[in-house]
């Protein structure tokens, strides 16, 4: 069969990786897809700059609109990142009747509802496997592999930079800022690492995962997001003493008041598989009826793993060329007229267990006061550790593990704890999940 | 749209689970698939026996051929197990122009080449996601999610009973026979547990995984298979002392002389994710270019997880109804005219590291003899442990870890070791893999 003609927007890390992959594995891909996939037109900001891929046979331009308007192109691969320009180009490509494949999580999380509506109108496919967890085929697993399931919750390590930082803090005992600087040197973290460490990148991905899991529209603005910037080496160490590891998780779960969507540091029991996903690797655990827990692990970023996902989408789109849109896999897993308006549960109504650390004066009766306040707030304590005071310190660290409690109750208890004269500063709070 | 009409062969564990799932999650499935899926005709060996599912609205028969010949049926789900009758029914269903979904790994491993040839001739789909690793969407991940990759190797815990036994030996210190008896009581193992503990079931699954990973025909008879019946509690304990866990793995890897296909007990470093997959759970690790290592984890058996995979296949088949066969996902991932005749490497040409245990007389010079023999065979030693003799014992256990060596070299060295007067009995050999 004739080669499929593809246009690429952006020849940076992922764009270059995609060009290289289609060239290097051309034979394997053709044997599976039944026909070759050729990149024939590409837009790069600086078309004359040296790059990581060969551009032989590719028409190069600096004008991305030239690619989306090229009548020869059947599929546009959007790899420029950012959200506004990417959105504009994607909508124009769709308007021109082209299928789209993208690795852009921000664009899908923020503008996906609009993009899918337009794509539905024009009858084209939009693939976004590369937008979540890089090379792990997690979109495919949830949308298709678990199609018979009612999904109860999912929880994932979906930002490699954050996981690299937490892993180094644990095994090398290094401080947050120190590891972050190294991640930037190694090219894992962005120059502005806000998206990684504050959880915004993870929230984009969680938004997408939650939509395809629960059949709800994309609602990025409703994700509760906490970063890892406040995690200290002490917390990592105390968590380890208690048999836990700290991971930055995105969690989507059916709660009493709707679907809870949250990104925050989380203590996980050390024997959990997710607790053992280290370095820049990603993993997503999904708990569903009837399959039970399943987990998907792999590289969450980087040119090559992301290119793997882009090519998987390209082949899927090619296979669907002649399929009527209503028989394709729906963009958000559920057919649009069946999307649910189930509310997003406010964080105050979410139930989790807690790790608490407070600095208390080293004198009798403090522990009695602390436990009284928690008990009166209806919070059960699972474990308490009171450390020895450091030489010359006037306070001792007290670490508590609680049973599950409503967020609102914990807020009120912490206010009271912080008001105690014997407690100095604020209470450090980290949620605990057993994922059972 | 009209409901899809499905016939089921077999209303045992998985059949009952599938009927229940389609009923319980009917709303979720319809919202995703776009149309309901109805089981309208089912064959059971004893149609009047009480069962785990409701059969309201299902025409029941004891004659499976009546279902495959029913002109109303669009998809036949084969869940009777075994291989000969299942093969006959499947071929007849295909001959009648029906699509087939099966959970039958023995049938696919032994007769898949014939079945897919017939299906290609008749232009029908054959889904077999449920045949490997139960509810884990591993067939989909490898065939579609990694479509752009050149797969280097895969390794999996793909028999839940065997993994349950090894896990209990490790954590509860119980002997093989004791745990096996419990697995049978709990219904994990078959009454005749040969398929589980001798690795035949795992070899069926590995045959299928290797075909879709490497684009080779199904070749069950070429899989090298070793069971776990010889694993002693001592080996489990010594492995742990050395920082390893013993798992029963199926491994398919590109070797110098072709593709190596083998099922055997394996020492894995304890920090490996696969080493931490416990109990009846399954997991498959795939290493591929460009995605790198990915891992897929979940329940490998049982009515509900297997039903999850059956329904995923049903929905895929329904979506493909109107697709020309050449645009469907090929049965064995690669289009049939592109299947490769790459040879299967004989076990003698496979390279692995080894754990060796021998019983030696407690006298000077024995270790020197042992290390001399290994050194002369070109085998490098990574670690040696010589245990204290048990009270009254005339031998001491000597445990060695070697570096990677050609199987043929190890065979010759072991013959020499066993010929030593100071070495009693035979040498226990277990392969070691680092999966890196």
Euclidean distance between termini CA atoms of chain A: 49 Å
CATH topology of the largest domain in chain A: Dihydrodipicolinate Reductase, domain 2
Classified by CATH, the class of the largest domain in chain A is: Alpha Beta
| Domain module tally of chain A | 3
User: What is the approximate shape of chain A?
Assistant: elongated
Task: Let me know the average pLDDT of chain A.
Answer: 95
- Category from helices, strands and their pairing of chain A: alpha/beta
The biggest beta sheet of chain A reads: 11 strands, mixed
Report the CATH superfamily of the largest domain in chain A. Answer: Dihydrodipicolinate Reductase, domain 2
Cα Rg of chain A: 24 Å
Range of helix content of chain A:
25-40%
Q: Largest interface, per-chain counts?
A: A-B, 72 and 72 residues
Compute the number of strand runs of chain A: 17
Spans of at least 5 consecutive residues with low confidence of chain A:
none
Strand content of chain A: 25-35%
Count, helices of chain A? 14
